[in-house]
Automatic annotation (TrEMBL):
One cellular component (GO) term of this entry: cytoplasm
Sequence ranges assigned to domain Lipoyl-binding in this UniProt record: 2-77, 120-195, 238-313, 360-435
SUPFAM superfamilies: CoA-dependent acyltransferases, Peripheral subunit-binding domain of 2-oxo acid dehydrogenase complex, Single hybrid motif
Protein name listed in UniProt: Dihydrolipoamide acetyltransferase component of pyruvate dehydrogenase complex
Sequence ranges of Basic and acidic residues compositional bias: 205-229, 330-343, 441-505
Enzyme type, top EC level: transferase
Organism expressing this protein natively: Corynebacterium endometrii
Gene: aceF
């Protein structure tokens, strides 16, 4: 009788494996436990033995195929037996069982159920992720007596990491439920029993199976065609965009923000929405180009992986999807006329770029992070003479904390580049000049020739065109063109208004002296930090960007007194005029007196911090370190390091390097304890997590195999991970596998802290603020008082893993390495 060979479980949290090589072929004879094939996973490469003896009748998965755990990969039977014989035998057995059931149909139903349960299969609580030991049943999707198919959702389970549906491992009838809703069940515990599948079948099941086999090849294709046709009709040849897979064991994501709206045009790989999971916050790009026709999931909705969240129309089909185009010709004519106007204007601006240079806008090196004073230009994305739009990427800049694109603050023509690639430029220094652009040229040309135009009639025509477009209720190519044209005109108006305000300080003060209250538009982190630095209240600024967005120039103008924001709140000047605004985020004022749902990162942080203190014995060891020698070396090497490696040399890479070396020397600290098995694991690699403060909360991306990285690579890895964390670019692998954590508590001036470690890690090291202090030193055998660069190193450890003496020895090793400061060869300059 034929036996199905399935892909076995190959480790905790491993859900699939890739077949690298078949060691046997169809027709070969195998013995029990004889190697059958080789399989590779993300954790192990191994041989899979044959579970039975016999002849290989069929291989169902080819080499290089990635197969889910539990999927059938081969069929082994007796020599001469066909691969389908197992199905025929099963059909015969089912027919016999059905005949017996029909004979006993008039007997007591309990007896029938008892006979079914004799062939019942136990359904267990599956493994739902690394370190997950139990799950809570939130809902049964089937009831006792219901029929279920293989992989049909059976119940919903919630853990501390994921909420997911559990599929049925086989087809049959649900005979018994052994765990009720809201019960918390250990992994591996039996939660239900399912009959063999023959019980609920009719007497004609074997005949149906034969018919199904005969039509097996043709029927799926027909069904696929029938399913696709209505989806095209309903969405106008729309492409359905599903919630993507966002990491191993992640089954759902919460939509935090839609970056596009219905009717907007998107390009391939253009960010479409932001999604949050229990492991990562990230942007989801559009898989196709087109127009957004329908959004099927709202913000804050939690959506399963694979569920449809939006429909995007085909660019060509959008114009053909509605026959009512002829009813709104006025809109097309208006758009064509506006498009021609703007194209002519762009050409004129390009021809007169020299003339525009008199009105050029200086582009400065922006602030790219706290304590970042300079940036290195890695690449110019535009050349002199190119036309740029507001917020279009202009250049790429690298600092010690972030590698990022710098957008253009204005629309226009790039007239001059003042800093070349690989130049390191101070924050605030002018790096380019952009002319006033097509919008300014257009307004100047038309001011003399078309003063008698009627703007009211133009706006009325636009409104009529928009109303006609709404009645048509379709997404067209021309609609996206209209939006681009309108945005250009809005930008032009904003620039003209900005110039007028600068030329007339009184009118500028009147226009910006507006308390926006809760209606402050979206402000980038860079603008918020700039406002914080200059003590500018964002609520009192009227933005000149697209849609009223507050730009960097608006904050600087307010700080210089051109837009006297401080005068806009005379009522509070008496109360808060002497309050400190240093490190104050004005946006947080909106939180006063409110109750709000926390984001996913805060929710997980809250849970994990409390859990960490409950399951580990934490205490903190502190030593003081003299880093004067490192400060001198850093100051001397910083320019050459930036020139060679394209990264700023901060103190943190020195601390990380010293800690990594100490962890290799003290493997008992780079360890994890399992209280259930009473075993200690000493990790082969030093995977260091670096705590990063982001607008959404604390994240700890990981430098994997840090023991193999020289100091420059550690510095580059820190900058790269911090950038990814702050820009929602982290992948699940970036946040997993840490064996130790380092947190820079001194970034906000902390002299001392007691960090909380997260099990199964055994330790976390804090780096406090470096301050100049008078210290007693010994010189030539005499005590003297000297000014030294000093800092504290608090080391929190789990007393289950590390004893106090071991903790002292570990920190002493780090202290000695830092005070000796023999890092010159590590810098390789």
């Amino acid at each position: 009788m034929a036996h199905s060979v399935e892909m076995p479980e190959l480790g905790e949290s491993v859900t699939e494996g890739t077949i690298t090589q078949w060691l046997k072929s169809v027709g070969d004879t195998v013995e029990v436990d004889e190697p059958l094939l080789e399989v590779s996973t993300d954790k192990v490469d191994t041989e899979i033995p044959s579970p039975v003896a016999g002849t290989i009748l069929e291989i169902k998965a080819e080499e290089d195929d990635t197969v889910d755990v539990g999927a059938v990969i081969a069929i082994i039977g007796d020599e001469g037996e066909s691969a389908d014989s197992s199905d025929d035998d099963a059909a015969e057995e089912e027919a016999n069982d059905e005949a017996e059931d029909n004979e006993s149909a008039d007997s007591d139903s309990s007896d029938a159920e008892a006979s079914e349960s004799g062939d019942a299969t136990d359904v267990e609580m599956p493994e739902l992720g690394e370190s997950v030991t139990e799950g809570t049943i939130t809902q049964w999707l089937k009831s006792v007596g219901d029929d279920v198919e293989v992989d049909e959702p059976l119940l919903e389970v919630s853990t501390d990491k994921v909420d997911t549906e559990i599929p049925s491992p086989l087809a049959g009838k649900l005979l018994e439920i052994l765990a009720e809703e809201d019960d918390t069940v250990d992994v591996g515990a039996v939660i239900a029993k399912i009959g063999s599948g023959s019980a609920p079948s009719s007497s004609s099941k074997s005949e149906e199976k034969k018919e199904d086999k005969a039509e097996e090849k043709d029927e799926p294709k027909t069904e696929e065609k029938e399913e696709k046709k209505p989806s095209k009709k309903s969405s106008g040849s729309a492409t359905e965009v599903a919630m993507p897979e966002l990491g191993e064991s992640v089954t759902e994501g919460t939509i935090t923000q839609w970056l596009k709206s219905v009717g907007d045009t998107v390009e391939v790989d253009e960010p479409l929405l932001e999604v949050s999971t229990d492991k990562v916050d990230t942007e989801v790009p559009s898989p196709v180009a087109g127009t957004i026709l329908e959004i099927l999931a709202e913000e804050d909705d939690t959506v399963d992986v694979g569920a449809i969240i939006v429909k995007i129309g085909d660019a060509d089909a959008a114009g053909d999807s509605d026959d009512s185009d002829d009813d709104v010709p006025s809109e097309e004519h208006i758009e064509e006329a506006e498009s021609k106007e703007d194209n002519d204007t762009v050409d004129e601006a390009a021809d007169d770029s020299d003339a525009d240079s008199g009105d050029a806008t200086d582009v400065s090196m922006p602030e790219l992070g706290e304590s970042v004073t300079e940036g290195t230009i890695t690449q110019w994305l535009k050349s002199v003479g190119d036309t740029v739009e507001v917020d279009e990427p202009l250049l790429e800049v690298s600092t010690d904390k972030v590698d990022t694109e710098v957008p253009s603050p204005v629309a226009g023509t790039l007239l001059e580049i003042l800093a070349e690639e690989d130049d390191t430029v101070d924050v605030g220094a002018v790096i380019a000049k952009i002319g006033s652009g097509s919008a300014s040229s257009k307004k100047e040309d038309k001011a003399s020739s078309k003063k008698e135009d009627k703007p009211e009639e133009d706006s009325k025509k636009k409104e009529d065109a928009k109303e006609a477009g709404k009645k048509a209720d379709k997404a067209e190519k021309d609609e996206s063109a209209e939006k681009v044209d309108d945005s250009k005109k809005d930008e032009s108006k904003a620039e003209k208004k900005d110039k007028t305000e600068k030329s007339d300080p009184k009118s500028s003060g009147a226009s910006t002296k507006v308390d926006n209250g809760d209606n402050v538009p979206y402000v980038t982190p860079l603008v918020r930090k700039l406002a914080d630095k200059h003590g500018v209240d964002l609520n009192t600024i009227e933005g000149t960007g697209v849609g009223g967005r507050i730009r960097k120039q608006d904050v600087l103008a307010a700080a210089k007194g051109e837009a006297p924001a401080a005068e806009s709140a005379p009522a509070e000047s008496g109360k808060r005029s002497n309050w400190s605004t240093k490190s104050v985020d004005p946006e947080k004022a909106e939180l006063i007196g409110t109750t709000q749902k926390v984001n996913r990162i805060r929710e997980i942080t809250a849970s994990k911090m409390v859990e960490a203190l409950q399951v580990s014995a934490q205490l903190t060891h502190v030593q003081e370190v003299d880093v004067t020698a490192i400060a001198d070396l850093r100051k001397k090497s910083k320019p050459a390091f930036a020139e060679k490696y394209g990264a700023n040399l901060t103190y943190l890479p020195f601390f990380v390097k010293a800690a990594v070396e100490a962890l290799v020397s003290h493997p008992n600290v780079n360890a994890s304890y399992n209280p259930d098995t009473k075993e200690m694991t000493y990790h082969a690699d030093v995977n260091v997590a670096i705590a990063v403060d982001t607008p959404k909360g604390l994240l700890t991306p990981v430098i994997h195999k840090a023991q193999d990285k020289p100091l420059p690579e550690i510095a580059q890895a820190i900058a790269e991970l911090a950038d990814k964390a702050r820009n929602n670019k982290l992948k699940p692998n970036d946040l997993t596998g840490a064996t130790f954590t380092i947190t820079n508590i001194g970034s906000e001036g902390a002299l001392l802290d007691t960090p909380i470690l997260v099990p199964p890690q055994a330790g976390i090291l804090g780096t406090a603020a470096i301050t100049k202090r008078p210290v007693v030193v010994t010189e030539d055998g005499q005590d003297a008082i000297a000014i030294r660069q000093m800092c504290y190193l608090p080391f929190t450890y789990d007393h289950q893993v590390v004893d106090g003496a071991d903790a002292g020895r570990f920190i002493t090793t780090i202290k000695d390495r830092l005070e000796t400061a023999d890092f010159e060869s590590d810098l390789a300059l």
